[in-house]
Amino acid sequence: MSESSPDQADLAAATEKAMAVKRRYAPELLAKANVVGVGVGFCQTGGASTGQVGLVVMVNRKLPMPLVDPVDLLPREIEGVPVDVQQIGEVRAQPA
């Protein structure tokens, strides 16, 4: 029987918590303008992974806060899980 290292156990716990929060809040987040997807992954700063697990909210285009309708603003965290907004561009179906 192998034991997990504390880092692996912490990562697994953070991932499980983020997945539970995603299940509860994905419909609400997906209802916001410009949001095209919600997942669980590593947060990024400047395109590089921070190593911190969080909710990844994918948007067509990041907008300056003053241009976002207040009802569509995304929180920085939900239930202690960080929310990372990542611009992915327009999502289109590819021909088979």
Descriptive account of the structure:
The protein is an alpha+beta fold and 96 residues long. It has one domain: GMP Synthetase, Chain A, domain 3, CATH 3.30.300. It is built from one helix and four strands; from the N terminus they run H-E-E-E-E. A four-stranded mixed beta sheet has the order 1-2-4-3. A hairpin with a 2-residue loop joins strand 3 and strand 4. The N and C termini lie far apart (45 Å).
SS summary, helix count: 1
User: How many strands in all?
Assistant: 4
- Taking pLDDT < 50 over at least 5 consecutive residues as the criterion, the unreliable ranges are none
Q: Report, as a whole number of angstroms, the end-to-end distance.
A: 45 Å
Mean pLDDT: 91
* Structural class category: alpha+beta
Largest sheet: number of strands, sense, barrel closure = 4 strands, mixed
What is the domain total for the residues?
A: 1
Predict the CATH topology: GMP Synthetase, Chain A, domain 3
> What is the chain-wise order of helices and strands?
HEEEE
CATH architecture: 2-Layer Sandwich
CATH class: Alpha Beta
Shape: globular
The strand order across the widest sheet is 1-2-4-3
Strand content: 25-35%
What does the radius of gyration come to?
15 Å
What percent of residues adopt helix (DSSP H or I)? 25-40%
